[in-house]
Amino acid sequence: MSNPSLLILAGDGIGPEVMDEVKRIITWYGDKRDMPFDVSEDLVGGCAYDKHGTPLHDDTMARAQEVDAVLLGAVGGPQYDDLDFSLKPERGLLRLRKEMDLFSNLRPAQCFDALADFSSLKRDIVAGLDIMIVRELTSGVYFGEPRGIHTEGNERVGINTQRYTESEIARVARSAFELARRRGNKVCSMEKANVMESGVLWRQVVTEVHEKEYSDVELSHMYADNGAMQLVRNPKQFDVIVTDNLFGDLLSDAAAMLTGSLGMLPSASLGLPMANGRPKALYEPVHGSAPDIAGQGKANPIACILSFAMALRYSFDAGAEADRLEAAVETVLADGARTADLLGPEGGSPISTTQMGDRILAALDASL
Ligand code: NAD
Predict the structure, then answer these.
(1) Is the peptide bond before 146 cis (omega within 30 degrees of 0)?
(2) What are 11's strand-pairing partners?
(3) Is 209 helix (H, G, I), strand (E, B) or coil?
(4) What distance in Å separates the CA atoms of residue 149 and residue 163, rounded to the nearest whole number?
(5) In a domain, 110, yes or no
(6) Is the pLDDT of residue 261 over 90?
(7) What is the spatial order of strands in the sheet that 266-273 belongs to?
(8) Which residues lie with the beta carbon below 6 Å from any ligand 1 atom?
(9) In this predicted model, what pLDDT tens digit does every residue of 205-246 receive, in sequence order?
(10) Which of 258, 278, 309 is the last residue of a domain?
(11) Measured in angstroms, how far is the CA atom of residue 234 from the centroid of ligand 1?
């Protein structure tokens, strides 16, 4: 059997810097855990525009469709701000998500004990937090038609349409139930069935999928506004939250702040299974290209490294190895290793991107 394949699209700004640390970790798994990957690299975002005049070349898109998983760094930068909308770096990322049909966006909100004081909430509310928000990513109000701004009578009207089909709801619900089975076995579905018909259908379909296929998983429903409140009141009551594109956008950002720094947040976007049973998959840190610190060795590589841990778990069925990598991150944080973004108001001396990579590799070695 051939090795699993990875396409690395490091992108712009700090993307290549944080991805360099991930590449060392991929090599470590090949050398020390007998898990070799076939790794190829290509361009996305501003660097692809500089070379090809487009933020994602067709050949790169085709390669992304063929590999077992895509690892992405970050895209964007001020030098691309004036480009036409269709050429902006972010369009490369959107094209990948759309053409790979990555409908299920997984955003874990996990609070490492060593960083609990970073949260805007009290330590006892967030310490040990480990929840997963599953956001529908390819439909809903960001895509629904009709949309636009037109004039009615003597004033302008802005229109967007929230539209979900049964099958779109069912597939993201299945994705959430499958995840819950690997975690705490609980799903909370969030919508606004009290005021939106699309929310009524959402609740009906999630309930049907649950009854027919996942009755072993505990399911609850919550209005999304209450969900937002509960997330900051008592986030540990949740295991997996599944919600639509708009509510997921807001709720996952709120949940992210429970955990502190942007440099710590991984994500996965998954689609339907390919012929080999693995889902179409793209893994990326939540943060952007951070032009303010790019090229200075200051970036925190942990979000990108934890995104690779998600790849191990969700694409390569290597949950124990993902646990190992997450535990290595936990160990270095507990030992006090901090990139600049992780220093509290009391300060201290930060380590560089590469030094953080060194520490995590040492912790991986120590785990053997
Ligand atoms: P950003 O996430 O790049 O940075 C926000 C702040 O967080 C900055 O101060 C930055 O220094 C800091 N930061 C982010 N990641 C960090 C890390 N790993 N380690 C340490 N500090 C980190 O968001 P922004 O400044 O709004 O956007 C910058 C560029 O990135 C823009 O061009 C934007 O369009 C793009 N962007 C891309 C993505 C993506 O690729 N998925 C996401 C968001 C923004």
Answers:
(1) yes
(2) 74
(3) helix
(4) 18
(5) no
(6) no
(7) 38-42, 5-11, 69-74, 279-285, 266-273, 104-110, 130-136, 240-243, 186-191, 218-223
(8) 14, 18, 74-77, 90, 93, 262-263, 284, 287-293, 299-300, 303, 341
(9) 999 999 999 999 999 999 999 999 999 999 999 999 999 999
(10) 258
(11) 28
Total-model pTM = 0.94
pLDDT in tens, 280-333: 999 999 999 999 999 999 999 999 999 999 999 999 999 999 999 999 999 999
- Distance from residue 82's CA to the centre of ligand 1 (Å): 18
Q: Is position 192 annotated as part of the catalytic site?
A: yes
Which pLDDT score, from 0 to 100, does residue 254 have? 87
Contacts of 147 (CB under 8 A, 6+ apart): 159, 160, 161
* One-letter identity of residue 244: D
**Domain co-membership, 80 together with 158:** no
What's the N-to-C CA distance of the chain in angstroms? 26
Q: Which domain holds residue 299?
A: 1-103+265-368
Look up residue 39 and give its two tokens.
């790794």
- In terms of domains, do 234 and 136 share one? yes
Q: 321: CA distance to ligand 1 center in Å?
A: 28
From atom 43 of ligand 1, which residue's Cα is the shortest distance away? 288
Whether residue 255 has pLDDT greater than 90: no
In the predicted model, is pLDDT for residue 365 greater than 80?
Answer: yes
132, 175 Cβ separation under 8 angstroms: no
Cα 152 to Cα 51: distance, rounded to the nearest angstrom: 45
Q: Is the distance from CB of 3 to CB of 336 less than 8 angstroms?
A: no
Domain boundary among 258, 293, 320: 258
